[in-house]
Amino acid sequence: MAGNSFGTLFKLTTFGESHGEAIGGIIDGCPAGVKIDLEEVQREMQRRKPGQSAIVTQRKEADTVKFLSGIFEGKTTGTPIGFIIENADQRSKDYSHIKDVYRPSHADYTYDQKYGNRDYRGGGRSSARETACRVAAGAVAKQLIKDMKITAYTSAVGEINLEKDYKDLDLSEIEKNVVRCPDEETAAKMEAHIREIRSQGDTIGGVVECVIQNVPAGLGEPVFDKLHAKLGQAMLSINAVKGFEYGSGFKGATMRGSDHNDLFNEDGSTRTNYSGGIQGGISNGMDIYFRVAFKPVATLIQKQETIDTEGQKVEMQGKGRHDPCVVPRAVPIVEAMAALVMADFYLLNKTSKI
Ligand SMILES: Cc1cc2nc3c(=O)[nH]c(=O)nc-3n(C[C@H](O)[C@H](O)[C@H](O)COP(=O)(O)O)c2cc1C
Ligand SMILES: C=C(O[C@@H]1CC(C(=O)O)=C[C@@H](OP(=O)(O)O)[C@H]1O)C(=O)O
């Protein structure tokens, strides 16, 4: 199985399955001398962990990160940073009925077709349990690039949209509700909607928006490793992601150049920021902002038609503890993936000129 590593200099490799003994990772290429606040790492883990509120999966995991190497007396040593996170609350019997049956729109069918030997318990490697490793590594990356401020929040749940720009929001409000939407009234509507959907055994999609502030100009490696291309890859590698747009995004396609061009101020900043802080694949020093669309969770607690491994039509209903909507827990994952990208480009940029 290829494809378990991300990054060029600051590189994360993850391993593990949802119902195996543990998941974990290795961060290669983190320079020596970075102060690591382990409590801060753990705070990030709490924001993603299952069982954190009534509107997410009720699997209960402590998600304590055990660092095995690469950190000594509170600082990185420049050697590989290895870590593990135990799986403690697997309930594999919830999956015995899908041993020979494929859940529609999960990864059961494709993993079986590709590998032919599928750990069906909890979705195995395809489970979003793996994203705990990304959050742990992202928390380390954030401490390497601590001058940059990466903030994500829930901006839509189904048809309920936060109709405000990030500049008009109080981003310190994000963690004050379980949905992670920085507008109390909209957050209450989103939470009620998720509860309603869950009571029907159904699921719903949503959008996470992210802004990266205090970014120096010059990050990004054209032509293939453009900053927005790597951010796109990072976001699209998160489970259940269906869309990524940055700056003006798809709306830009409806505009005229005379409106869309970001006119300069004398200090090089721009009056508008339709570019989303990136031009030619390189940061220009303005805020980077982007949106990530998540599909509704595939496992429903209601009957749907599907096929078994013999290709016979059968009816199935999901069992166990699933997220009715992933976005509240996806917020820290989006931030973590953004931090991995920015840390990598921060290091790569040190090779750009003498
Ligand atoms: C934070 C988070 C939580 C998730 N929780 C569940 C879940 O409880 N049940 C489920 O079927 N899928 C869940 N998913 C989505 C699956 O992991 C994902 O749909 C599956 O791996 C198939 O991949 P794809 O949807 O990207 O094609 C979750 C995704 C994220 C990001
Ligand atoms: C365990 C986590 O989320 C899981 C993601 C997930 C999936 O299919 O992606 C399915 C569920 O797994 P299980 O049936 O084992 O409870 C979620 O709970 C986690 O995020 O740590």
According to CATH, what is the topology?
Answer: Chorismate synthase, AroC fold
Amino- and carboxy-terminal Cα gap: 39 Å
Helix and strand element order: EEEHEEEEHHEEHEHEHEEEEEH
CATH homologous superfamily assignment: Chorismate synthase AroC
Question: What is the strand content?
Answer: 15-25%
Number of strands: 16
Describe this structure in words.
The protein has 354 residues and is an alpha+beta fold. It has one domain (5-351): Chorismate synthase, AroC fold. 24% of the residues lie in helices and 21% in strands. A 5-stranded antiparallel beta sheet has the order 1-2-3-7-4, covered by helices on one side. Strands 9-8-10-14-11 form a 5-stranded antiparallel beta sheet. The chain is globular, with a radius of gyration of 21 Å. Ligand EPS is lined by residues 18, 50, 57, 59, 61, 90, 94, 122-123, 127-129, 132, 239, 320-322.
